[in-house]
Design brief:
This protein is mostly helical. The chain has one domain: dinb family like domain (Four Helix Bundle (Hemerythrin (Met), subunit A), Up-down Bundle), CATH 1.20.120. The protein contains six helices and two strands, in the order H-H-H-H-E-E-H-H. The chain starts with a helix and ends in a 16-residue tail after the last helix.
Length: 185
């Protein structure tokens, strides 16, 4: 199993789930207004969580490929930081997710094998630099950061009354359900 074998399916299923959750939100009368919702006053709003989940997915792939980050990632990051003032629409958010999925799929299609011990220097804007192996980067940064933003988006949507439950979070698991074991109501 390669590191891409872990990241790409995770990004695919969770970004797909996030898009589905947003589709449910779009059907509500409050719709696009939910993008400005937050869990706490000092947290980023839903629109930022979506943008940052997309940033994390793209960044993870490009960093493992040891390629420079495309300008589109910086633009998406800036859009996320500015989302409180300009949250956009749910259609915009879902389009961003679709574009991110296309980028992830294209980058993964010709991804070289990566040695898990490959050094990764991960610099943050505040000047901190983390020295990790590729395996540590995936396990300790790429996946946790991605899930943080996806799950914060889920929590915001739930807090705002979107009808979501555990089944929406683990929808991908139904592909593995043994026939005849689904409880009947």
């Amino acid at each position: 199993m390669t590191l891409q074998d872990i990241l790409v399916p995770t990004y695919r299923q969770m970004l797909g789930a996030l898009s589905t959750w947003l589709e449910k939100a779009e059907a509500l009368p409050t719709g696009d207004a939910l993008l400005a919702a937050r869990l706490a006053p000092d947290m980023f709003p839903l629109s930022t969580q979506v943008s940052f989940a997309c940033v994390q997915a793209q960044e993870g792939i490009f960093r493992l490929r040891q390629e420079a980050m495309p300008e589109s990632i910086a633009a998406l990051l800036e859009r996320g930081r500015d989302a409180a003032a300009h949250p956009g629409t749910i259609a915009d958010a879902r389009a961003t997710i679709a574009a991110t999925l296309a980028i992830v799929e294209a980058a993964a299609a010709d991804a070289p094998a990566i040695d898990p011990a490959t050094p990764i220097a991960h610099a943050l804007p505040q000047g901190m630099i983390f020295d990790l192996t590729a395996e540590q980067y995936v396990r300790d940064w790429a996946l946790p950061q991605f899930y943080f933003h996806v799950m914060t988006a889920y929590a915001i949507l739930r807090a705002q009354g979107v009808a979501l439950g555990k089944v929406d979070y683990v929808a991908q698991m139904f592909a593995y359900l043994r026939p005849g074991t689904m409880p009947t109501p």
